[in-house]
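Q: I'm writing up a methods section and want to include an example of the input and output format. Could you take the sequence below and give the corresponding predicted structure tokens, formatted cleanly so I can copy it straight into the document?
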Amino acid sequence: MTGDAHGRDAVPVGVAGRPTLAFGLSALAGMAVLGAAMLAALLMGPLPIPAGAIVRDVLDGLPFVSVDSGLTAQQHDVLWQLRMPRVVLGALVGATLALGGAAYQGTFRNPLADPYLLGVAAGAGLGATVSIVYAPGLSIAGQASLPVFAFAGGLVAVALALVVGRSFGEGRTSTTLILGGVAVASFLTALQTFVQQSHDETLQQVYGWILGRLSTSGWTEVRVILPYVLLAAVVVLAHGRLLDVLALGDDAAESLGVNAGRVRGVVVVCVTMATAAAVAVSGLIGFVGIVVPHAVRLCGVRGHRALLPLSAVAGAAFLVACDLVARTVMEPAELPIGVVTALIGAPAFALVLRASRGGATP
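A: Here is the clean output for your methods example:
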């Protein structure tokens, strides 16, 4: 990225203009991959369901369309009450983590940033542990306490990180926020470890949640996460151009009329809420927020107006595919999805870094 001290010509070519043909083709390719991953996830399982029947059944659910899918009542129930909610949830969680990772990398100008940077994972982990240990049968507003505690823990952790970060110096700079996140995450992780070791009979359940899972009870989890994902997506995508400017540095951004602190605050709040909601229903799933945005950049995408939506689509496809592996590779047993994303994501990240010769800057 080049340019003078005032940021002229520093924004990548094409960022300020309309979406290019390459972006359109990349988006279509990403949607095709996502559709293929979702269809494969719907097809595979103990009960076989033909691909054509799935397509016809989906069409039959559209307004003013009536098509006989040929599915039995059992196949229909398995499709719509078990597989479809899980696939949709996987796509939403994957899109959220990848979008959050891309947004954080641009916001903090840190290629290693991910959605858990400011302590969301530590806070959610502590909240989930407290729920499992002290309130296993508690119901809050008709919901199990675990996702509620995890969501609240994630939000509290980031709020503390913001407060601590501000105490390190004036202004809401990226460095002070990261330092605040590190401090808070370390403290909350220590508290979680203490609670776990004090109640070792719950260790297996706690670690089961920490390693991640996409098991659903129908569409409940999808309804829980969807509003936060939509809000974050709308706000973050609307800030794509500003994130390109923010990548020049706070001083350069301010000289161009962009309030760096306000942009960073809005993006952090929205990504935090969506990430906390995702973690609450899926547990801690690593590498998606780091690997996917870098893989998209490796395809030549630089401007955030293209990077953000493409990362969301790629993240959705990646997590749906990982979940398919998690529930079929050891069938009838199920592998934690966090293990799959780590096994795939760690080597993939190393390859991406090598191919990009140290990683492209956001």
